[in-house]
Amino acid sequence: xxxxxxxxxxxxxxxxxxxxxxxxxxxxxxxxxxxxxxxxxxxxxxxxxxxxxxxxxxxxxxxxxxxxxxxxxxxxxxxxxxxxxxxxxxxxxxxxxxxxxxxxxxxxxxxxxxxxxxxxxxxxxxxxxxxxxxxxxxxxxxxxxxxxxxxxxxxxxxxxxxxxxxxxxxxxxxxxxxxxxxxxxxxxxxxxxxxxxxxxxxxxxxxxxxxxxxxxxxxxxxxxxxxxxxxxxxxxxxxxxxxxxxxxxxxxxxxxxxxxxxxxxxxxxxxxxxxxxxxxxxxxxxxxxxxxxxxxxxxxxxxxxxxxxxxxxxxxxxxxxxxxxxxxxxxxxxxxxxxxxxxxxxxxxxxxxxxxxxxxxxxxxxxxxxxxxxxxxxxxxxxxxxxxxxxxxxxxxxxxxxxxxxxxxxxxxxxxxxxxxxxxxxxxxxxxxxxxxxxxxxxx
Length: 444
Fold this sequence. Notes:
Helices cover 47% and strands 11% of the residues. The protein is of the alpha+beta class. It has a 5-stranded mixed β-sheet. The chain has a 3-stranded antiparallel β-sheet with strand order 4-12-9. Strands 6-7 form a two-stranded antiparallel ribbon. α7 (111-125) packs antiparallel against α8 and α12 crosses α17 (373-390).
């Protein structure tokens, strides 16, 4: 057994430039050169040791928080998310808040959210023009933000939601990878980001003032109230941004992959014909497989980092205190001995076999699995089905888009460019944000 760290690229600048230009391309090339485990050059005193084998991810993601700590690995983002954010908690405080938030999130999966999704798609698609090329990503970000706002703040008035949605998008779009580099967290680089965050906080604060002491236990924002208001604002803002960032970009990749593979598109449309309502689609097997394969093919969050607070062994390697151990989901999802033809798009693979929890883990794993994964997957299914029913599309991409890094998430560099060839409008009433829509959401 070896105690030295795995080899990897030695020079920081070319590593950073390649990673910033094409994250997926960088990961593929580095794995080809060095194998499934590699060490990245030290930056600002920090060193990342990357692993992608399922057995290594199991060791990393099941390690105790006082040995490998996710909050410590995300410390450089504390100034941005705040101490009240779930992402910044650890130990018993994290587990208690995770269970509380998870119960609320599961309760958001109701028939009402299906209707909200359909209405959002109807309203957005009504503004599209046939024959005019467009990037889907901005529209998808707007759609997913509206859905996430409704899921978390169901009884806020329409005018509040109308101001909050663009504020969340503006804040999320201001996040760059430089925001997580301590040396760059100063002055003119961070002031615009802080102003955008303050705008979101102010809108949420006004909504809390409007609600007063009245608490509706069927509303997630109300359900999370209690204790320090600033911590609540930080936590809800983190959940709103994380939800819209990941879901919008996952849908952009899914739309590209479906449209780039006509046989998948055709089979999916045939399956959707048998679903009478948005709620009917969530149990369709091929739709579920398409969503899973899209999440495998393009890992929107390609890394799950943990900071070593004690010496820790991963496989044959001894990780020193202070180093960051990284599970690379993108590379795990492209291991050829786990996924046949990993660069292909084969949704049926998820009908042929069941993959282990550390082989396919688009929402992470262990106790820090994405707290809203159940709601996110539900929303992805209904949104993708509604989008494919709303219009006919033609890809105008000249080549497969490379990955583009934004903060800690990855989107198609072109935003998935399409031409609308036909629009299929439906007569539906305008979306209403005020009625509460959750129910019985304290079940685990």
